[in-house]
């Protein structure tokens, strides 16, 4: 037996079963209503799927008087915001995943009011007392558009401290790996006969002596590696701003600034969702770069790759790094076509599915396979693994 139900807009009628009606009311009323899977009898017949339970958890974190463990939350619940930063960062990711942007903005503002997070945004003293870490930085970047002027300086100081620590950890290894890759490339591929190191080339090819020809048949031609100005590379880093890439965005901002400081590299950094923003002018300040990013929203990777192509002036000397999980919100075929054209021009393309300390990320395996047909490698790596991976990709150019 079905009931006649008119939708919210009143434009058409649909038939909704009692079970579906119970499910909808269960999601509206929250976990206190009970459901068919937890023994509750207030809402009999309401069965929630895994996606429903995720939505329920996201909304319950804000609107329920009971937390996930069943402990009383209370409207005046207080506590340290420092320990909650990782959970809050995950909640922000989940809420963006479950709802459209207009709904996210409402729920996010309610969370700030109901959970006391406005203190973190409005009181610089509280920000200064919180232990800075990567989770807190991603939280501040997520909420940067809500920061009042009075708290912005304190927020920048927190972000700056974490980024300085990351830069100290990563800079020396990245610079060393880049210089090593360029030096090896210089020795392998002299661009002119006068750059060939004949002594080293002969020694490296003694085993290829041909008695019939009375000569060495060189397999490797090594150069002096002294024409540094001709060995520079162009690097274009395109960063996916979707919420699932939050930690990768932070690391990419730091590494983008490090790459921009290396004289032998000409570095561009762009961020994208459904539009593309060129952040190259603020590469000298990764804090400004991060606050120029707006996490969340749609994803049009094809548009980002199309923009990157306009920045390519010397394809054979260009490395394009796409920091994205490859979940294309636009036209997948157009993305494949743009990447194929980029590779055909002579540029090297590397996809970083994640640049984070976590495990293997969720990503679009089918898209990764399609791009692999062009020789494009799609990998996830930690920030500590990035220098060697980057140097290897740079050496291909």
Main attributes of the structure:
397 residues; alpha/beta; 6-stranded mixed β-sheet; 15 helices; disordered N terminus
Written overview of the protein:
It is a single chain. By secondary structure, this protein is of the alpha/beta class. The chain contains 15 helices and 10 strands. The chain has helices at 18-29, 50-63, 85-98, 101-114, 118-122, 124-129, 134-142, 149-188, 198-204, 246-260, 286-291, 301-311, 332-344, 365-372, 386-396, and strands spanning 3-6, 13-16, 209-210, 215-216, 233-240, 265-272, 276-278, 318-323, 348-355, 377-381. The strands form 3 sheets. The protein has a 6-stranded mixed beta sheet with strand order 7-6-5-8-9-10, with helices on both faces. Strands 1-2 form a two-stranded antiparallel ribbon. A hairpin with a 6-residue loop joins strand 1 and strand 2 (13-16). The radius of gyration is 27 Å and the shape is elongated. Mean pLDDT is 77; it is low at 1-13, 35-42, 66-86 and 226-231.
Short description:
This protein is of the alpha/beta class.
Structural class designation:
alpha/beta
What spatial form do the alpha-carbon principal axes imply?
A: elongated
Rounded average pLDDT: 77
The H/E string reads: EEHHHHHHHHHEEEHEEHHEHEHEH
Helix coverage percent of residues?
A: 40-55%
């Amino acid at each position: 037996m079905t009931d006649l139900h008119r939708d919210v807009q009143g434009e058409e009628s649909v038939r909704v079963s009692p079970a579906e009606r119970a499910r909808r009311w269960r999601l509206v009323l929250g976990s206190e209503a009970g459901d068919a899977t937890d023994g509750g009898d207030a809402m009999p017949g309401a069965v929630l799927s895994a996606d429903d339970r995720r939505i329920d958890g996201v909304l319950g974190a804000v609107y329920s008087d009971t937390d996930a463990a069943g402990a009383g939350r209370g409207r005046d619940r207080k506590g340290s915001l420092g320990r909650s930063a990782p959970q809050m960062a995950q909640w922000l990711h989940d809420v963006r995943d479950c709802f459209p942007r207009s709904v996210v903005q409402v729920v996010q503002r309610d969370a700030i009011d109901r959970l006391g997070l406005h203190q973190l945004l409005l009181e610089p003293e509280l920000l200064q007392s919180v232990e800075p870490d990567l989770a807190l930085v991603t939280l501040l970047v997520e909420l940067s558009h809500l920061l009042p002027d009075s708290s912005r300086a304190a927020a920048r100081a927190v972000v700056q401290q974490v980024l300085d620590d990351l830069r100290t950890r990563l800079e020396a290894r990245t610079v060393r790996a880049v210089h090593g890759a360029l030096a090896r490339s210089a020795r392998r591929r002299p661009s002119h006969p006068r750059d060939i190191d004949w002594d080293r080339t002969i020694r490296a090819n003694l085993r290829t002596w041909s008695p019939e020809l009375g000569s060495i048949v060189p397999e490797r031609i090594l150069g002096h590696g002294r024409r540094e100005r001709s060995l520079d590379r162009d690097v274009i880093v395109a960063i996916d701003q979707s919420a699932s890439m939050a930690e990768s965005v932070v690391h990419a901002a730091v590494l983008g600034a490090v790459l921009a400081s290396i004289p032998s590299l000409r570095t561009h950094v762009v961020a994208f969702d459904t539009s593309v923003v060129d952040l190259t002018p603020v590469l000298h300040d990764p804090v400004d770069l991060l606050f120029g990013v707006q996490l969340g929203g749609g994803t049009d990777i094809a548009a980002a790759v199309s923009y990157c192509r306009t920045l390519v002036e010397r394809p054979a000397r260009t490395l394009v790094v796409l920091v994205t999980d490859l979940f294309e919100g636009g036209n997948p075929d157009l993305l494949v076509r743009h990447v194929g054209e980029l590779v055909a021009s002579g540029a090297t393309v590397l996809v970083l599915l994640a640049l984070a300390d976590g495990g293997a990320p969720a990503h679009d395996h089918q898209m990764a396979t399609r791009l692999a047909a062009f020789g494009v490698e799609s990998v996830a790596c930690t920030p500590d693994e990035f220098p060697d991976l980057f140097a290897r990709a740079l050496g291909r150019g």
